[in-house]
Amino acid sequence: MGGQLSYTYQTPKGVAGALVDISPYSIDSRTNTETQVDAMLFGMGVVVGNNPGSDVRVPTDTNTAADFEGVCMTGYTQQMTMTGEVHVYPAQTVGVLRWGRAWARVVDGVIPAYNDPLYLVIDGPDAGLFTTDDGGGDNLLINGRFYGGLGNGNIAPVEIHNQLPQSV
Predict the structure, then answer these.
(1) Pick from 111, 113, 106, 34: which is nearest to 71 by CA?
(2) CB of 73 within 8 A of CB of 94?
(3) What is the reported pTM?
(4) Domains and CATH numbers, the chain
């Protein structure tokens, strides 16, 4: 008979791709243009795809800061596998946080602090993850900031100022 063998006494600080709090935010629906399952993950930074305003993809070294769409958000439409994994599938509709606060994926080993600059990695295996430095000029400076330190695993709260409405 199976059963839960370990327990924790606290709730995890965050989940990749979830909202940090109930402050104002804007989330738009976009289509994942990646062709491989899990090329895009919840909590990653994404850029415009082939059809701006319609689809998104994982950044590459040809992208500029102007291509940044936002953070891929988790929602209520994804399915969990029997082993507890959640996937982002090709052609799946995803929410993209354009401005607001979310839990974002951070490069392994990076320890952000409140108000650290927010850079998006656009090359290599960490493409789509966030970091605190320019990577020798290879990473994109994003209009936003880290809103705190590491949470549950390699995620941290970020505040995106991408295309704020005039009233905020």
Answers:
(1) 106
(2) yes
(3) 0.87
(4) 26-160 (2.40.300)
User: What is the spatial distance between Cα 158 and Cα 50, in angstroms, rounded to a whole number?
Assistant: 26
3-state secondary structure the chain: CCCCCCCCCCCCCCCCCCECCCCCCEEEEEEECCCCCCCCCCCCEEEECCCCCCEEECCCCCCCHHHEEEEEECCCCCCECCCCCECCCCCCEEEEEEEEEEEEEECCCCCCCCCCEEEECCCCCCCCCEECCCHHHCCEEEEEEECCCCCCCCEEEEEECCCCCCCC
Rounded average pLDDT per 10-residue block, the chain, 168 residues: 59 81 92 93 95 95 93 75 77 94 96 96 96 94 94 92 59
Cα dihedral sign, 71-132-61-160: positive
Name the token pair of 66. 């102007």
